[in-house]
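Hi R.,

Here's the chain you asked about this morning:
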Amino acid sequence: MGMYAMTRIIGRPMAARHEGTIVNVSSLMGKVAAPTMASYSATKFGIVGFTQALRGELARENIRVIALLPSLTDTDMARGLQLFRWVLPMTPQQVAKVLVAKLEKNSSEILVGWQSHLAVWCQRFFPSLLEKVLRIAAPLSRNKSFGEINNKQQVTGNKKRFWRIVWDFGFFRSSRQTKV
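And here is the predicted structure, written out as tokens:
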């Protein structure tokens, strides 16, 4: 709702001037979903869809609407994750630099980082291979169903308990450590 509300607030003056650019920050996960990241991926896919629809609605007002799709970015949130150890995180400064450079081009989506380009390319041409790679990189615990994992993740208030639950379900274990 925050993105929708903010877009309405800034979009109206842009429409009155018949010019502007809106950049919605999504993620590579808005194009390529990964195991253990269903909720996150769903929200990022939603941002991409919202951006595509808005682009069509605001085109007649000469307003560009762009989706920014960075891969793993070195933020406080990402530092605690060890799900995708093979992905090299980008700094926020690197993401910003790519955004500024690509704004000059007439792109509707801006992929940030070679890993993003590779993942989207694999998704298009070799989706089964990409799914296997993602499963190896971020395996779900095989002794718990998604529903059980999801219910346990909703525990709030106690960070230590939350991370203990996450650890118990095997989110941070390598594929060799996860029970089959």
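One quick note: The chain has two domains: 2-138, 140-180.

Cheers,
M.
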